[in-house]
Structures are given as C-alpha cells and as structure tokens.
C-alpha cells in the first residue's frame, strides 16, 4: 500500500505547475477565464491578455494565491513586434514564460455568399495570424531560456468539419490545426510541445446565437452523444495536462473535447 501511494504521489506531481508562468489570451471571460483559473489551481502564475477588462479573472487567480499580470491588447492588431513586446512584459513582470494558451478567437456567422472582406480579414488575423506571431515570440523566449515550454492552441470541431455560416472561422481554425502540427514538428527538438484543444459546442458567447435559435439548438443538442452542451470547466483538465510535465512526449496532438461530436 505504501508503494502504491508513492506511485500515485509521483504521477500526480507531474501534473503540478508550481513555479511555472502561463499567458492566456482572451482571458476576460468564458473559456479563457476557465483556462486561467485551471492553470492557477494547478500552481501556475498567470498573465492575462485581452482587449477587455480582465479584473474578474485576475481576482479569481489571485484568490488562489497566485500572481497575475494584466495585458491590454487587441489581437487584430498583432504584429511580430507587438507580440514580442507582450511576451517580454510577461517575463519582466512574472519572471519567465513557460506556457502560452492561444485561446482568444472571433466568429461572425453569415452565409459564405455574404461574407464581407473586412470580416474575413479580421477573423483570420485574430484566429490564425496573431497566434503564429505570439507562438513565434514565445518560442524564441523558450529557446533562449533553454528550458522548453508548452504552447496550447484552441482549435475547434470546425477544424475537422465545414460547419454552417462560418467560412472564415472554419478556414482559420483548420489552418490553426495545420499550424499546430507544423510548429510541433519544428520545435519538438527544443523541448517545446505544441498541441491543441478542439472544443465542441460550449456555453460561451460564441455559441449564444445557436443556443438561442430554436431551429438549430435542438438538432445541435441531439447530435452531441453526451447529451449536453460543454461548460468551460470541461476544458480545464486537458489544458493542465498539456501544460504539465505529464504531456512531455505529446507533440502535434489535437484533442477534441466535444461530448463525442466528432466521433459520432
């Protein structure tokens, strides 16, 4: 029995994030807030990036005894230079950077025939381009520090399916799935794990339109084998796993957390 308890202790220790520093984008609410709180519960200090006020998330993180730092930034305006500045601010204020969670995303639903050029450009800039620039800046810091790191991207079930009335979002999220694998291949040798989470239909602002549409909400629910919409907290466990030592040999994975949607 002593041996079994010791094994359990060692295994659980590999999931701890004590002494680590994470940056979560889109941290003001929804999935981003859940990621920030989950990582803090596992022991990490957390930097919170959003164009919105992150005070609520900051209070939740600090209530757990963790340090936090807020960064106001509009991801639609991200450049390689601004990404480097944001990541440098994390290191300056919290001492290091071990984990990057590229959570922030934008969707505007409309038939593909009606998609405006401005919507296409903004969605792709936020959901794909900004993620590359932030990941590139983070990887440069991690390589320089020589300690490896974890980059976690937020794909979508639409990374595998076409979806309806979401052509720019689907294009960006499908591109992000490919980018995740490409960066994983290039950076694994530096000890940097690049993986992704693909949420299903979650109770967030992004799905409010579908959930309030009586024509679409019923069929959508019927298509989910688990029989319910996902909650932001359903993603915390896989995020902690991908951020921790327990996933050190996992590179380029895209983990669906969707109540069984993709496999249905």
Topology overview:
Blueprint lengths: L1 H12 L7 E5 L4 H12 L3 E6 L4 H9 L4 E5 L7 H15 L4 E4 L14 H29 L3 E6 L12 H21 L4 E8 L8 H4 L2 H9 L13 H8 L10 E4 L7
Parallel strand pairs: 1-2, 1-4, 2-3, 4-5, 5-6, 6-7
Helix pairs in contact: 2-3, 2-9, 4-5, 5-6
How would you sum up this structure, described in words?
The protein has 264 residues and is of the alpha/beta class. The protein has one domain: Rossmann fold, CATH 3.40.50.720. Helices cover 45% and strands 14% of the residues. It has nine helices and seven strands, in the order H-E-H-E-H-E-H-E-H-E-H-E-H-H-H-E. Helix 3 links the parallel strand 2 (45-50) and strand 3 (68-72). The chain starts with a helix and ends in a 7-residue tail after the last strand.
